[in-house]
Structure formats: structure tokens, C-alpha cells
Design a protein that fits this description.
The structure holds 2 protein chains of 2 kinds.
Chain A lengths: L1 H17 L1 H25 L7 H26 L1 H8 L3 H5 L5 H32 L6 H31 L3 H15 L12 H7 L23 H25 L7
Helix pairs in contact in A: 1-6, 2-3, 2-6, 3-6, 3-7, 3-8, 6-7, 6-10, 7-8, 7-10, 9-10
Chain B lengths: L4 E10 L2 E11 L2 E6 L6 H8 L7 E6 L2 E2 L4 H5 L1 E4 L11 H10 L5 H14 L15 H13 L5 E5 L7 H16 L3 E6 L2 H7 L2 E6 L2 E7 H9 L3 E6 L3 H8 L5 E7 L4 E6 L2 H14 L6 E3 L6 H7 L3
Parallel strand pairs in B: 3-8, 3-9, 6-7, 7-8
Antiparallel strand pairs in B: 1-2, 1-4, 4-5, 9-10, 11-13, 11-14, 12-13
Helix pairs in contact in B: 3-4, 4-5
Classes of the chains: A mainly alpha, B alpha/beta.
């Protein structure tokens, strides 16, 4: 099974690199670097008083956490099965000697690698644009790496959930949009344990707490009752594993028909 | 000889629509053609025996094993689907070597096999062009190449000649016959009788999801030959043609389409008619622009066979 997953991974990583969708999302993610550049110029001109760290936190929370990882995971995750059905290419896969579960896991890993590369490169470039100066320390570098790892965990969890939706539902994109931009945002404003029913809660729990009291968009954190870091990491990993397992299980037994 | 493909009471519905019903079939090595009009159930049968679909009732086996999700069987099976679908961003070579990599071949082996398959379908010169830029005939040939590239023992080809020009058709038919000579089992589907005749004499007639008849081409021909055929000939000499052929006893009826300079013959002996027509063209100075069979879609023949 491991070899089969690797074979599917290699094929779809190659295919994904060539796809127009990857190029489009690379352009979208590059918007953060452009934004960072504009802000840095403003900052250097003395028009922006907040530190580079705080500005980056805001970009991280609004652009990366609440937009980019959701949109990347949504479009790549729900397409894992849908693109084969719409493109009618599923017979090429399902008549090859690879387990159906390996198709899902291999494609998931290929798309996770691609989307992570797109996102992490944008995170690092934006971070360095905003923070690279004579005061830059090695610790700042580790901060950027930490942010990237948190976003990677979020991407893995969201991608897995949307992969599950894609294998289960005929039209997963609408449900995915409602979940990603509806449920995930609204639930944050509920106090108590309710907010733990979202992926975003665990991601925000892993990000620095000082942002809750500062920054222009600090209101996004007003009601955050953070979960312990270890628990948050374990929960995100479990979400990724459980939904990927469910997606593989559904795909192994479900029949998919083209709309001829 | 033991059957390579076995189907027992295979039935499949799509909601209220019948795909196939109680199909019992044993297929031995060699070429077997599934002949039937569009919507007859040929593709459904092929999808079941290649593990794309599950039957609602009955069972399909290849080499004695169930097909659904069976990786051992998929290794020995090549499937060319009917749909014109590809990973369009890839070149022909990338498409083949990518799919070959799913069999676990080494990269070098994938390249070698992809090159060989491209050579067999005569696409070597355009192998680095994106599939999206291929013509219909080239796309059909690359689809066949992906089915044969791993050298399978069983080949399932759904309408393999569709969209091909006459020369490409001849090449593919030759290729299919070479596979037969190598002792492999090939199942092809078609709704065009002359195409099937060029490939094999072993035919399964399928209609409305049921097997109507099975036998060699001569048996089927006998059934079909009692049904009158329509042959439309477009020629500047269409009146002379009609005058000469009107004397033949196998010509049952003649009608004209003067605006198109065409004449339609109705005959119950297509072979005799075409033999005479060939002689006529060779003997005289008559020129012919086009020959078509208005009812060559088999639907008319099937309707006749099922007594509609």
C-alpha cells in the first residue's frame, strides 16, 4: 500500500505542478508578499507605527488563516474526486493496480505538498519583507518557521475535511464554502466549548496570544478561549487522520457514475 | 478452452433505467466483438468487467477472480474507455509514462514502454505535444496506447475505432489482430458492423441490455441479410446507375434525390450489390462521389431482429 500511495503521489504531484489551478493559487498567495511590500514602504516612510511583527500577525490571521488555507484546501480537497468525475478520467485510475484508498491518500499528500509549498513560500516571503532589518534576530526566523508549521497543520486538517466532503457529496464545493467561511467564522464568536467545534479554534490557540490585545484586527480574537498547545496539535492531527481515513473508506466502496 | 472472462446473470440498473439484464457470457482468448446500437448496454457490460461499476445482480470474473477493487486483475487488464477524456495538461509521452508509473515500473521502464506504445499507435513524432492539441484520431490512438502499454493479457476496448480516419482504423485493426495472434483476450465494442467484421468473426449481439444472439459473423450476417439495406449513392451519373442496377433481382426498390444527385437503393443482399457496383465502376466510366448507408447504425437491423 505504501508503494501504491507513493506512485499516486508522484503522478499527481507532477500533474498538479503543471495545472493552471496551481499557477492561479500561486498568484493569489503572492498577493500577501505584495501587500507586505506596500506596508513596508509605508512603514519606512514613517506612516505606520506598529512593528513588523504585529503587522505580520494581522496578515497571518486575516489573509492566511481565514482565507488562503481555507480556499486552498477547499479547491484542492473537494477536487480530489470531483476533477476525475468531471474530467471523466476516473477509469484511468480505477483500472490500475492501486488500491482505491491509495488513490485518495496519494492525491491528498500530493495536493498537501503543493498547497503547502504555495502557502509557506508566501508566509516566509511576507514575513521577511516586514521584519528583515538590522534588528532581525535568529529567534525571528524561528517565529516564521513556527507560523508556517501552524498553517501547515491547518492546511492538513482542512484539506482532509474537504477531501472527505468530496468523496461523500456530489456537490461538495457549496457545503465546503458554507463550512469554511460560514461556520468556521461564526462559531468563533460563541463563548465556551462551542468554538472548539471548529478547526480555526485550534489554529488560533497555537498562535501568539499577545495579538488578542493589540493589532487592528484584534477583535477577531475577542472571545478566544484557547486550548492548550499540545491538545490543539493532537486535535488537528486527529482531524486530518480521521477525515482522510473516512474519505479513503468511502472511496473504496462507493461507485462513481459520470453524468453521460 | 477455459473462459477468461465469465459473466453470470449480470444485471445493472441506473435508477429506473436498465443498463444490462441477466447477461450470461463466457469469453475465450481471441477477439470477441460486442455489437449493438448506442445505449444497448455494451459500455455497461465493459464497465462491470473492468471493475468500474458493480453489478446489481450476478457476478463477473476474469481469470476466475472477482474484478471490483482487484489489483491482481488490473495488472493483467487493459481498458480503453469510450469517453474522450484525458489529463489535458500532459503531453502524450507524460500521459503514458505517468499511468505506467502506477504499475510500479521503474522510471526507465516507464519511458521504454511509453515509447514502444507510442510507436505502435504511430504517435512518436508528436509525443511531446500536449494531449489537448491532438486531433480526435490522435486522442483515440493515445487512449488505445494507454491500454496496451503495460502489455496486458486482457484488453477491453470500448468503441476503439470511433473518430478514426480509414487509415488509422486499419492500423488499429492490425494492432488488435496482432494482440490476438499473441494469444491475448480482446473484447471490443462497436455499433458499426463492417468495422467489427474487419476485426473478428466472433460476435455477441446486444440490444436493450440483453444478449440477442451470439455466434460467428456468418450466422449474424444471415440474420441481418434477410433485412433490406438502404444504400445511398451520390454521383453525377446517378440516373445511369439506377438504370443498370434496376435489372438486378436483389434490388428491391429505387428512389431518387435529384437536388443532391443521389439515388437510394434498397436491397436484401448487400454483398451482391456491392460486388456488382465494384464491377460496374471498373467496367464503365461512371464516377461516384459518395456511398453511405442511411440505416447502417444497426438500430434498424436490431429493431427488425427483435420484431419491432
Amino acid at each position: 500500500m505504501r508503494n501504491e500511495i507513493l506512485r499516486v503521489f508522484s503522478f499527481y504531484f507532477f500533474l498538479g505542478k503543471k495545472s493552471a489551478r496551481t499557477k492561479v493559487f500561486f498568484m493569489i498567495s503572492s498577493a500577501s508578499a505584495l501587500l507586505a511590500l506596500v506596508i513596508r514602504v509605508y512603514h519606512l516612510a514613517g506612516n505606520w507605527t506598529e512593528t513588523g511583527q504585529v503587522i505580520f500577525q494581522n496578515i497571518l490571521m486575516v489573509f492566511f488563516l481565514q482565507f488562503l488555507i481555507i480556499i486552498l484546501a477547499l479547491f484542492y480537497g473537494t477536487s480530489i474526486v470531483a476533477e476525475e468525475l468531471e474530467g471523466k478520467t476516473l477509469p484511468y485510475l480505477s483500472s490500475r493496480p492501486v488500491a482505491r484508498a491509495a488513490i485518495i491518500i496519494g492525491k491528498y499528500l500530493a495536493y498537501l505538498s503543493l498547497t503547502s509549498a504555495i502557502m509557506i513560500s508566501a508566509v516566509l516571503v511576507s514575513y521577511f519583507i516586514l521584519n528583515l532589518d538590522q534588528d532581525f534576530r535568529l529567534a525571528d526566523f524561528w517565529t516564521a518557521i513556527r507560523y508556517s508549521l501552524v498553517l501547515f497543520l491547518g492546511l492538513a486538517a482542512y484539506l482532509s475535511f474537504f477531501t472527505f466532503l468530496g468523496t461523500w457529496l456530489k456537490r461538495p464545493i457549496l457545503v465546503g464554502l458554507a463550512f469554511g467561511f460560514g461556520w468556521e467564522s461564526i462559531i468563533q464568536y460563541f463563548p465556551g466549548t462551542t468554538q472548539k467545534l471548529s478547526i480555526a479554534h485550534y489554529l488560533k490557540s497555537l498562535l501568539p496570544q499577545y495579538i488578542t490585545s493589540s493589532g487592528k484586527l484584534g477583535f477577531l480574537f475577542i472571545r478566544l478561549e484557547p486550548t492548550k498547545s499540545v491538545v490543539a496539535v493532537i486535535t488537528l492531527v486527529l482531524i486530518a487522520v480521521i477525515f482522510l481515513g473516512l474519505a479513503s473508506l468511502i472511496f473504496s466502496y462507493k461507485e462513481y457514475l459520470f453524468e453521460d | 478452452m477455459s473462459a477468461v472472462i465469465e459473466a453470470w446473470n449480470l444485471s445493472r440498473w441506473y435508477g429506473n433505467v436498465l443498463g444490462i439484464s441477466e447477461v450470461n457470457l463466457e469469453i475465450q482468448p481471441g477477439i470477441t466483438a460486442l455489437l449493438g446500437p448506442n445505449g444497448a448496454g455494451k459500455s455497461t457490460f465493459m464497465k462491470i468487467i473492468t471493475g468500474q461499476l458493480k453489478p446489481n445482480l450476478g457476478e463477473a470474473r476474469i481469470f476466475g477472480e472477482k474484478v471490483w477493487n482487484n489489483r491482481r486483475i488490473f495488472r493483467r487488464l487493459g481498458f480503453c474507455p469510450e469517453v474522450d477524456a484525458f489529463y489535458e495538461e500532459l503531453s502524450g509521452f507524460e500521459f503514458l509514462s505517468g499511468l505506467l508509473s502506477l504499475y510500479g515500473f521503474s522510471p526507465a521502464e516507464c519511458r521504454k514502454r511509453a515509447e514502444k506504445a507510442l510507436e505502435l499507435v504511430e504517435l512518436s513524432d508528436v509525443k511531446h505535444r500536449q494531449v489537448r492539441s491532438y486531433s480526435r484520431g490522435m486522442r483515440q490512438r493515445i487512449k488505445i496506447a494507454q491500454a496496451i502499454a503495460h502489455d496486458p493479457e486482457v484488453l477491453i476496448l470500448d468503441e476503439p475505432l470511433s473518430g478514426l480516419d480509414p487509415l488509422s482504423k486499419r492500423r488499429i485493426i492490425k494492432l488488435i489482430k496482432e494482440f490476438k495472434a499473441a494469444g491475448k483476450t480482446i473484447v471490443v465494442s462497436s455499433h458499426v458492423l463492417p468495422e467489427v467484421e474487419a476485426m473478428t468473426s466472433e460476435i455477441v449481439l446486444i440490444h436493450q441490455g440483453k444478449i440477442l444472439a451470439r455466434g460467428d459473423i456468418y450466422f449474424i450476417r444471415e440474420l441481418i441479410d434477410t433485412h433490406p439495406h438502404m444504400i445511398r449513392i451520390k454521383s453525377p451519373h446517378f440516373r445511369e446507375l439506377a438504370k443498370i442496377l434496376a435489372t438486378e433481382d436483389y434490388v428491391l426498390n429505387i428512389s431518387f434525390e435529384p437536388p443532391d444527385q443521389a439515388v437510394i437503393f434498397e436491397t436484401h443482399h448487400r454483398d451482391k450489390f456491392f460486388n456488382r457496383l465494384n464491377d460496374l465502376i471498373l467496367e464503365s466510366s461512371l464516377t461516384i462521389d459518395e456511398i453511405t448507408s442511411p440505416d447502417d447504425n444497426l438500430q434498424a437491423v436490431f429493431d427488425y431482429l427483435v420484431g419491432k
